[in-house]
Amino acid sequence: MKQIKTLLIAALFVFGANQTINAQAKVAHVDVSEIMAKMPAMLDAQSQLEKLSTTYDADYKKMIEEYQAKLKKYEAESATVTDAVNGERGKEVQDMQKRITDFRDNAQKELQQKESDIVKPLMEKVRASIQKVGKAKGFQYILDGTSLLLADGPNITADVKKDLGF
To answer: Could you tell me the pTM of the whole model?
Structure first.
């Protein structure tokens, strides 16, 4: 009777341990930042954004130089012209300031929108690849490596890069 009890307890223990092992989730991690930073399409996108930014910067600097030159000219001539002309010039200077501010704000918005338009499809492509690789390897959870405090599990970053073709 004692042996049957011992055998039954051992069987329950083995069965319980087997269920615990099966219940554990397979977890891996991936460094999305690294993938995005080294992705050829992302490198091309960054190059496009830098060119656009350089163009906006050049136009902005040109507008500032024109503004400063006009302001300097108007200040030098302010004593020799009428109050009406000075008032008109003051309004013109304020309009230039507004155009410069509007240009800067619009340029920033356009750059942000362009970046979003470029990055979003690339990010979706990376996510799809991560899901594909994760399912193929039997993982139930894949964590982004940039926010991990401990990463002892498998790292599938290289597998995702391979799936994406770089």
So the answer is: 0.65
